[in-house]
Amino acid sequence: MIKAHWVAVCMAVGGLIASLPAMAAEQAGMIKVSMGLVNIERDGKKLAAEVGTPVLVADRIRTAADGSVGVTLRDNTLLSAGPNSLIIIDRFAFDNTTQDGNMSVSIRKGTLSVASGKIAKRTPESVDFHTPTSVLGVRGTEFIIEVLGGSDE
Fold first, then answer.
1. Which pLDDT tens digit goes with each residue over 59-86?
2. Sign of the dihedral defined by the CA atoms of residues 19, 21, 22, 27, in that order
């Protein structure tokens, strides 16, 4: 009886340890719309940003001249990037039960339309958007950011 208990405990601990790498890059959202050439750069690899592809914290989403992408984050924030854009999900955390969270998104070049979700509605000071020259706090529910001549880095 005691031996079986220890086996169960060891298996549970082993499962938690095995899941740590997967938890390191938390899923922030999902690609909902993708047109033209759109890639996600993750861990030095380029992935096609197809509808249904998970978006993780630290992902770089890049659209080509013919590309556009729509991302829905877990708190229902909607991000829409136009052609020749580069956005990075710098930070995202959201607790579905308490509705607490925070996010930080960078737009290095191109255009980004934002419809804020639950985090911004609950605690707007927990949300910010970065361009190469500024940091924007969220005080409204919908806005557009355009970065002219931005960086590919």
1. 999 999 999 999 999 999 999 999 999 9
2. positive
Q: What is the pTM of this model?
A: 0.80
Question: Over the stretch 88-98, which tens digit does the pLDDT of each residue have?
Answer: 999 999 999 99
Q: 26-147: which CATH topology?
A: Jelly Rolls (2.60.120)
**Domain extents in the chain:** 26-147
- The three state secondary structure string of the chain is CHHHHHHHHHHHHHHHHHHHHHHHCCEEEEEEEEECCEEEEECCEEEECCCCCEEECCCEEEECCCCEEEEEECCCCEEEECCCCEEEEEEEEECCCCCCEEEEEEEEEEEEEEECCHHHHHCHHHEEEECCCCEEECCCCEEEEEECCCCCC
User: Regarding beta strands 27-35 and 54-56, do their DSSP bridges make them parallel or antiparallel, or are they unpaired?
Assistant: antiparallel
Pairing between β-strand 101-115 and β-strand 127-130 as defined by DSSP bridges: parallel
Return the structure tokens found at 25: 């890059």
Q: Residue 122 — φ and ψ, nearest 5°?
A: -80, -50
b/e code 18-29 from CB counts within 10 Å (16+ = b)? eeeeeeeeeebb
